[in-house]
Amino acid sequence: MQTSLTQEQQKLSVAVSGSIDTTTAPELEKVIFDHLEGITELTLDLLHTEYVSSAGLRVFLKTQKAMNKQGKMKLVHVNNEVLDVLEITGFSDILTIE
């Protein structure tokens, strides 16, 4: 997994490529939370994300809970495989997906 961050004032975009699984989810969580202070708009760009495991879903949920207190979060460019996982688990009802 690789991440790329773009920040403009209080807006943060995190592009994730590869798989978000048991081994990479803690790294993603650290990257996000290390940059979350003062952010009111968070975008997770999943254009190049091939797979999300339950560990990745946990990171999404934890991040969403944090952003509920300070702003908003959305997932963009979600491919069909990842979208299927989000829909089957009910996360598509919790997360904003564009």
What do you see in this structure?
The model has no long low-confidence stretch (mean pLDDT 96). This protein starts with a strand and ends with a helix. It has 98 residues and is an alpha/beta fold. Helix 1 runs parallel beside helix 2. Strands 1-2-3-4 form a four-stranded mixed sheet. It contains four helices and four strands. The chain has one domain (2-94): Transcription Regulator spoIIAA (2-Layer Sandwich), CATH 3.30.750. 23% of the residues are buried. Helices cover 42% and strands 35% of the residues. The protein has helices at residues 25-34, 54-70, 80-89, 91-94, and strands at 2-8, 11-20, 41-52, 72-76. The radius of gyration is 12 Å and the shape is globular.
CATH-assigned homologous superfamily? STAS domain
Spans with pLDDT under 50 lasting ≥5 residues? none
Number of domains: 1
- State the order of secondary-structure elements, H for helix, E for strand: EEHEHEHH
Please, what is the average pLDDT?
96
Number of beta strands = 4
CATH class category label: Alpha Beta
Strand order of the largest sheet: 1-2-3-4
CATH topology call: Transcription Regulator spoIIAA
State the shape.
globular
How far is the first residue's CA from the last residue's CA?
A: 22 Å
Q: Tally the helices: what do you get? A: 4
Class computed from helices, strands and strand pairing: alpha/beta
CATH architecture designation: 2-Layer Sandwich
Helical residue percent band = 40-55%
Radius of gyration (CA) equals 12 Å
Strand content range: 25-35%
How is the secondary structure organized here?
Blueprint: E1 2-8, E2 11-20, H1 25-34, E3 41-52, H2 54-70, E4 72-76, H3 80-89, H4 91-94
Parallel strand pairs: 2-3, 3-4
Antiparallel strand pairs: 1-2
Helix pairs in contact: 1-2
